[in-house]
Write a structure and sequence with these properties.
alpha+beta, Helicase, Ruva Protein, domain 3, 2 domains, two-stranded antiparallel sheet, 5 helices, 6 strands, 34% helix, elongated
Amino acid sequence: MSREVGELLHDSEGSAYAKSFENDVVITLDLFPSEDMGALRQRIQTVLVEQSNKKIKNSLSELIAPALVDTILMLSHIDGETPNHSVRTEDRKILVAILKTVSMSVAGLLGKEKAIVSSGGVALEEVDFKTMQSRLISQLYLVGDVLDVDRPSGGYSLQLCWTTGYVAGSHC
């Protein structure tokens, strides 16, 4: 078991931080990590009282990503059409518990044709980072995804490519 705190990219095609293990992977998310159960329970109660005639699905979409609302309500066994003033105390407790511990299983990867970043590459010890030149082959410059740097995809990957490319371009 391992634990990591940070952002998670999850879109209509699944999790970008998916399965790199042989075993089943379950991701448990705390959608409100800076609030304990009591504080979150109070926050939800305040929203439900202040917006008593709104539907729970509309109020909840102001607190979490709208794409998650239907799933969270389904897991909580709450009908999204329910007016806030009709949400029972027990349902609120279940809702808060789920918001603090949403679990999902990683079913698999999309395959190499949709991969964003792969693991592995040229060992970092083989690269002079002042120039990005290979320490083994003169005039060979190594940048971006050819380097053995595991990192989150997206901005980190692009920044690595741009920065190492700039350094190499400045020295060749």
